[in-house]
Amino acid sequence: MRACIIDCTDDKFMTRGMTRRTSSSAYSTGMKCIEDDYLLKYGGNFIPKTSLDEIKRYDVAFLSLTSVQEVESFIKGVDKDDYRKNRCKIIAGGAGCINIYSIIDYIDIAVFGRCDNSQIIDILNGKYAENVWVKENDFECSGSYKVGEFKEPKKHFETGSIGCRRDCYYCQYTNVRTHDNKPYSPQKGAAETDIWASDFTTPRVYTTAIDGLTEKTRMMVNKPITDKYLVKKISSFYSEGNRNRTIGIKLYNIVGYPWETPETVENDFKTIVEMLSKIDRRTGKWRCNISFQNTPFSPEPLTPMQDCIVDVDMNFRKSLLYKYEGVDLRMRSTNFHQSGLTRAHRIAINRCEYKSRDDVRSFILDRKKIKDITHILTAQNPIKYLQHTKDHKNVDFSEYEKKRS
Ligand code: SF4
What we know:
Elements (H helix, E strand, L loop, with lengths): L2 E5 L11 E2 L8 H14 L6 E2 L9 E5 L3 H13 L8 E6 L14 E4 L6 H6 L7 E3 L18 H6 L13 H4 L29 E5 L5 H6 L6 H9 L10 E10 L6 H16 L9 E10 L27 E2 L3 E5 L6 H11 L6 H8 L9 H4 L20 H7 L1
Parallel strand pairs: 1-4, 4-5, 5-6, 8-9, 9-10, 10-12
Antiparallel strand pairs: 2-3, 6-7, 11-12
Helix pairs in contact: 2-9
The structure holds iron/sulfur cluster.
């Protein structure tokens, strides 16, 4: 059996006629598990990565989807790369393999959730578990499937954590995976975790998140960080370990919730920066640089906020310019907020139905405008084929949407 990998994370890879070896560290952890299982069974040193026009030379091609962006890259790759798969079976899987309707015409098998514990070998031998969709058995994906959970503790530890002990209403990560009450940690050694587990007492760059500019917003999305706690936590950089040293804190934040507008975001951003600026003792002996990494709210399938309406025309870029340049403390927003079009692409893929897949692909390929697919962007989550891993909370945000409109 000849296997290859389609990995849409690297744009250069999408060049036609390419086959190459890539270090395994470039793969997602899930793809590394699959490669290990495959090589153990079939031999060899690596599975080559190939461009889409080359997959026809293989029996099977693995497509790693860790996010909606990779679904988008795959759609663009199929469009530009003279997609000819002949008898090659394309198996898609990964954290971004949730709504497959926009790519259902190009794939043969989809694995929802984890595919470790040698499950890939069973799939290659025609044995399909409850988390596997197979086109020849269910052409339009109208059946019922589960999201696979991790089974191998060894691989679990290699990844730092699977799932998260918190339960933020917008977060798919926690809503489709079981977890073991560990603080969120994306990989071994990374200084990234939820704010409750963060410790800013030694000099390094930390990554954590608040995901709401106001205490009220954070409570509404079930991320209960009070202003008082946030001030106390950030103040902890004044530790002896940091004296005459610099620490950096990347503070991820979400803007564009249904109850927010560019005006409220501008005001709330200024307010939180001013609140935190009061921590500054102005000694010159400590230095803390906080960068707010603002990302747009997106209603993700399988989360309590999945049906929220998002106004993709709102532009928050100018709302996040306020900054503080103090003595011990500096704060600024370092990245550009995604454009409305980028958000619309994401929502269109997440809300794609079987019957609307041509429209969604045309939109991704810039052959349709936002106004042509408004009915898709404002639809409810269409995924009926995946069973929720957790009890879905009944959280109603519609009152805020009405107010906004
Ligand atoms: S947003 Fe972060 S803290 Fe909240 S559930 Fe998701 S991973 Fe956990």
